[in-house]
Amino acid sequence: MERRIRAVDVRRRYPMGRGFVDALAGVSLEIEQGAFVALVGPSGSGKSTLLHLVGGLDRPTSGELFVNGLDLGRAGERDLVNYRRHQVGFIFQSFNLLPTYRAWENVAVPMMLAGAGRRARRERALELLATVGLEQRAEHRPSELSGGEQQRVAIRAGAG
């Protein structure tokens, strides 16, 4: 099987006060295509830090981190933007929906950033909302949606 994620002695250190905190201390792993993986551990053990690194939101302080052949520690900013736009999706604990946008507009934001026209964005957003049973809620703003509905909008927004 092809390896999709490979980490070798990955570390992430953050400045804190006059010292540093090691949020990730020497993680090495390989994840093959199609594998199902769960990150478990106590609060503060580095789970979110590792996900931020794999997601291209942060860079390792040292070590090597490759996803689909892209070296996330050395990739240029343009490569990271393309990686985040086309290969990674995030669902944050707070859904980060734009409160003044309707559900379909929130789903369409990544398509807008990619340069798609309004009609194409709306059509695709409505298709995506239908896949999670929200086609009838497309015109509602986040404050008019339940927490579960907001989560489904956020999931579809990541599918752009």
Structural commentary:
By secondary structure, this protein is of the alpha+beta class. The chain has two domains: 3-86, 3-Layer(aba) Sandwich (Rossmann fold); 103-157, no CATH class. Helices cover 34% and strands 22% of the residues. It contains five helices and four strands, in the order ββαββαααα. Strands 2-1-3-4 form a four-stranded antiparallel beta sheet, covered by helices on one side. Helix 3 (103-113) packs parallel to helix 5 (147-157). The protein is elongated, with a radius of gyration of 18 Å. The model has no long low-confidence stretch (mean pLDDT 91).
Would you spell out the secondary-structure blueprint of this structure?
Elements (H helix, E strand, L loop, with lengths): L2 E14 L2 E14 L14 H8 L7 E6 L2 E2 L5 H10 L16 H11 L4 H14 L15 H11 L3
Antiparallel strand pairs: 1-2, 1-3, 3-4
Helix pairs in contact: 3-4, 3-5
